[in-house]
């Protein structure tokens, strides 16, 4: 297993076969995810069965209610621009942050790569926290953000709202990450009125997503990319995409294997 650290977030791992990983390999990758946020695994020409078995090595799967399951693989869903009159829209976010226990990991398997565009962008939320001005850190210490569901249809009994600390210790590393999501999903900040909360979330998001804090991953055939939702934000860049962009997505529920 060879590793190349990516800046400002992530690590590329080569010399592995997702179909033959052992428990020690998964433990090592879990550590890389916790420390670096994103693991890029090029050259993995695997099918959905192998992709799913790889993900299950990290723990039980979870699924975002309201997404359409992949036929034959109900734990996976498709992310695609095929057949759409308008490009999909994507903002920086954390997957399913509106539940009390958000998914620990998300992974994408490249199925079809566009001829141009379609990158996925990741941020380093450890660095986002560490580089906050001292005054802002002091003002936000101990506060929580109420995350709410938007853009998905859920059953009446499903979770649609959860409180999370804005400064969230990572369950494995203990390092503090700035935990937020797209502004529409950050409905309130404890101890702030609506206007102050909205301005604060926008300020934090702008700080997190500065160019010098973002990794832009350009997809290649055979790529599998996995990330830790506890320390990164992500979004797909749909601007200027030429050709079909099709990904299969899976999510792992928790950090305990």
UniProtKB/TrEMBL annotation:
Domain TauD/TfdA-like per the UniProt entry, residue ranges: 7-250
Protein origin, superkingdom: Bacteria
Listed GO CC annotations: cytoplasm
GO function terms (MF aspect): metal ion binding; taurine dioxygenase activity
InterPro entries membership: AtsK-like (IPR051323), TauD-like_sf (IPR042098), TauD/TfdA-like (IPR003819)
Pfam hit, one: TauD
Keywords carried by this UniProt record: Dioxygenase, Iron, Metal-binding, Oxidoreductase
Gene Ontology biological-process annotations: sulfur compound metabolic process
Family: Belongs to the TfdA dioxygenase family.
Protein name (database record): TauD/TfdA family dioxygenase
Species of provenance: Nocardioides flavescens
């Amino acid at each position: 297993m060879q590793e190349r650290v990516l800046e400002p977030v992530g690590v590329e791992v080569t010399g592995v076969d997702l179909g033959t990983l052992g428990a020690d390999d998964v433990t090592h990758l879990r550590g890389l995810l916790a420390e670096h946020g994103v693991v890029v695994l090029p050259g993995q020409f695997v099918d959905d069965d192998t992709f799913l078995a790889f993900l299950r090595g990290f723990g039980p799967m979870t699924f975002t209610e309201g997404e359409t399951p992949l036929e034959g693989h109900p734990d996976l869903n498709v992310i695609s621009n095929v057949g759409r009159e308008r490009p999909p829209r994507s903002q920086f976010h954390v997957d399913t942050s509106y539940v009390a226990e958000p998914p620990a990991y998300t992974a994408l398997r490249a199925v079809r790569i566009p001829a141009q565009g379609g990158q996925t962008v990741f941020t380093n939320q450890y660095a986002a926290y560490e580089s906050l001005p001292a005054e802002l850190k002091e003002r936000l210490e101990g506060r929580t953000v109420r995350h709410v569901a938007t853009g998905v249809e859920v059953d009446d009994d499903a979770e649609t709202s959860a409180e999370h600390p804005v400064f969230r210790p990572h369950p494995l590393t203990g390092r503090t990450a700035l935990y937020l999501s797209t502004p529409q999903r950050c409905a309130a900040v404890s101890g702030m009125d609506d206007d102050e909360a909205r301005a604060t979330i926008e300020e934090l998001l702008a700080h997190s997503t500065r160019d010098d804090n973002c990794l832009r991953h350009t997809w290649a055939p055979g790529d599998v990319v996995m990330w830790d939702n506890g320390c990164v934000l992500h979004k797909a860049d749909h601007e200027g995409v030429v050709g079909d962009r099709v990904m299969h997505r899976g999510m792992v529920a928790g950090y305990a294997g």
